[in-house]
# Entry
Amino acid sequence: MTTQGYGTIEPELDELSISSFSHVRLPRFAPLLVLLGALALSGLLALLLGWGPVAIPVVAVILTIIALPLWSAVVENRRAAVDRLVTCLVWTALAITLVPLVWVLEKTIAEGIPAISWHFLTNDMRQGLDPVTFKMVAGGGLKHALLGTLLVTLGAVVISVPIGLMTAIYLVEYARGSWIGRTITILVDVMTGIPSIVAGLFAVALFSTITGNPGIRFGLMGSIALSLLMIPTVVRGAEEMMRLVPSDLREAAYALGVPKWRTILKVVLPTAFGGIVTGVVLAISRVVGETAPLLVAVGTVDYVNGNLFSGRMMTLPVYIMQEYNGTVDDRKFAWGAALILIAIVMILNLVARIIGKIFAPQTGR
Amino acid sequence: MSTHTAEPPAEAPAPPRRRRFGLGDRVFSGLALLAGITIMVALAAVFVFLAVRGSAGLHADSSLYPAAGNFVAYAAKLLFGTVWAAVVAMVFAVPFSIGLALFVSHYAPRWLATPVAYVIDLLAAVPSVIFGLWGLRTLANAMKPVEGWLNAHLGFIPLFSDPLSTSGRSVLVAGLVLAVMIIPITTAICREVFAQTPRLNEEAALALGATRWEMIRYAVFPYARSGVIAGVMLGLGRALGETMAVTFVLGAEDPLVTVKLLTSPSPPTIASNIAQRFQGENTGQQVVLLATGLVLFVFTFAVNFIARWVVARQERKLA
# Structure
């Protein structure tokens, strides 16, 4: 039978199955109809009984979940009713999961926008003498936290990208099923599950053992803690991308007498470049919001510290936590910083996707 | 520069593939191996340094173990809080994750599946501290009437019994926030396994007259069972180690063991306990917390390791 044959038969089969083979079915628009009806009914009930606006969709969804399978059970059969019930539940799961996301974003934007100003971005929290009232007031800004996050994250990138990339190269190009390769793969997988606070504790334990000073805190400790969380993401991303590079390309290079290491540097890495960068950016977006390891390993200060190698630093997530635990007035700083942090993370995510899109179709034709 | 062929014959045991290439190749592969070994060393170092620094915390002054006389009781109580919050989170997260994964893999129209998957990933991108801010007041306030209702109607069950938390901050709220945070992880894994079900199995089920749900029940679920279990365990591992959301919602409390979901002094988790108390310069306190951190590390390591092992076994079975 040719494909053309299928094409002509298909509509007939469709009609047959609906009209004579199977039982009577609900019309295609039945779910929509029931949902609209349920919304109207719950709206009416809300008007009559004085419910809040939140109750309307909740009641409507519950009504739909009850009504649609009932209708189906009457018109169709029990099995079809169960099927419709599950379909309803799956759509409901989606709707409910979107609630916290929208809610968190809405809350952060609503509370954060009033707090953001030029003053907020260009000052730190150091106490200073107010020239008008002659009282000591905090600076009311997050410059120190922004700079701290930038430096600590940069440090983490500098540590984790070379290690992660070289590990991925080892796994893809050199391991060839050796026990070291298998062990590293398992360990990288397990590493993705390290609790972030344990990474921070590790940095503290490491440096307090080396220096003998249990109170030691500086920016690079945070970088090391974050790189522990970043490395597995970088390795997995790079490994996946490099496995997609067709072996024809490698073999062509070998056939020309190019040594393996130059093949990797000049053929494999450039081909997989876009995907690797995407993975790195996603890894950055994952660690930039990490709070616990930085709280433990970097500590808090109120002023700008631009030196990664000495002294405590402030970072954006820790700043959010500290300001929120402060006075009621300080809370608006926390929300402002939260909005900036969420914007940074979302922009990084977007950048990663765009880079992935631009560089994606480089393999094969 | 790398094509020196004058190699000593001692290189003979190297695999033949490598023999033709020179110094550059050996240096490069050595570097790659070194990076891989660094990862092994780093993981081992996490364990060793936590153990070295934390060992003093095993026999510290008993005043450093509030609500417990010795380290074992202290760690056990904290571990209870950790597992309890994670279990509450899983109760909410697992059904939603499976539903969402089914939606993306089998229910969504094609134009909707990709954006939905992207939005779920966005949920994973929101920093935990912001979920903490949201959970602490917004969600806790919104949950107050729900908690009151649960207590009034189901209060005879120990889970929902008195006294009610006045601020709404309770294990129930902490579990909800944790659930929101682990749903993306569990969903991603479930989605992958559901999508791997052989097309022919699904079509065979449909051809026998199965409805979509029956097809999923009899073709997809049996196939995906161990993958789903692994996804759930990975989510559990994340929930066990999650710090900020729980720290914000539950606040600083001494360890305690209770299954009441709605009361206000609620059992803290290992991670939230560390985050609350670590900032001081007190060395004795620090080593005790490091020791509890080691307990958390070993526990989550075990959970993750089992999960990965289940996945690996599943992959072998399918190969």
